[in-house]
Amino acid sequence: MATDYYGVLGVSKTAGNDEIKRAYRKLARALHPDVNPDPAAQQKFKQVTAAYEVLSDPQKRELVDAGVDPLAPAGSGGGSPFAGAGFGGLGDIMDAFFGGGGASRGPRSRTRAGNDALLRLDLDLPETVFGTTHDITVDTAVTCGTCKGDGAQPGTHPATCPVCHGRGEVQQVTRSFLGQMVTSRPCTRCSGTGSVIEHPCRECGGDGRVRARRTLTVKIPAGVEDGMRIRLSGEGEVGPGGGPAGDLYVEVHERPHPIFTRDGDDLHCELRLPMTAAALGTSVTLPTLDGDEQIVIKPGTQPGHVIGLGGRGVPHLRAVGRGTLHIHVVVSTPTRLDEEQEALLRDLARLRSEEKAEVVVSNANGDGQGFFSRLRGARGGR
Length: 382
Description:
Layout: H1 5-9, H2 17-31, H3 39-55, H4 58-65, H5 90-98, E1 117-123, H6 125-130, E2 132-143, E3 159-160, E4 169-176, E5 179-186, E6 195-196, E7 209-220, E8 229-232, E9 248-254, E10 261-263, E11 266-274, H7 275-280, E12 282-288, E13 291-297, E14 306-315, E15 322-332, H8 339-351, H9 371-380
Parallel strand pairs: 1-9, 11-15
Antiparallel strand pairs: 2-7, 3-6, 4-5, 8-9, 10-11, 12-13, 14-15
Helix pairs in contact: 2-3, 2-5
């Protein structure tokens, strides 16, 4: 082989990759055409670039050490590659002047982090109000118990890829009128990992993980709302190659309650009373989430009146205390009266001078001024 690539860079045949790279950077800084316009320096720069491209590639360096010129034209017995060599790959030039990592990305890890998982959990209102613990069943990827995530059959190990020799990528050299171009792409044999599993685990097929059904206990805090998500760290999908697991999110869905409607930390319900009870007053027993409550209805309670019970709502999730239970009074008017009942109501109307009731229309201020009274007042003001 006529070309001494080691001599061009000024390094020994035992030089490591770092020493070769340092030598190339030093020479490239001095010989690059943008720095040194001398034609002789340009020719020398082409030689230095070609030598670096050969010695930085393990496959080409093996050929050099075996006495074969990897850049020699096909069918020739040798010959110098420098006559038609260009300025080399852009990555190498940038590497020389700015100290970058070069075009090579290196092998990527076979182990990768797993994905998060999402599970829906339906709960009743008392469970979201007071909190609870709930057993859930999840079906996720877990680390293979046979190979412990390695992917190889027990007793074997992943081997260095014979195509890329552990680099995780392969390079292709092409020549054009612009010069010599070096491109890199992930190795298809090892998918860019630099290693291959020649004897995959029979349990997981080399993936390092298997599907499994597990039962977990999740703690539901008091006051959790519909749609909120509870995070269980590290309980999601295990990653390929036995990588770290993602998180499991439990999304709470609150079932409708037959009595109470929730609005944030407050609860609402309706209390239906007969007309007579609203007029005369009474006491009723109301079942709440905390137990039975005795509710006093004052005489003359009007429809739509709201009774508030503080501390009977939902606990504040991030603060002390609870919301309010709002009781909306609905007065039921009888629709069917027998003769005796109708007579009694007419007597009551006569005693209250309500045979002809005055229409009352309340404005936004609720002053209760009668419609006809306001109409008369408007006429008198003209």
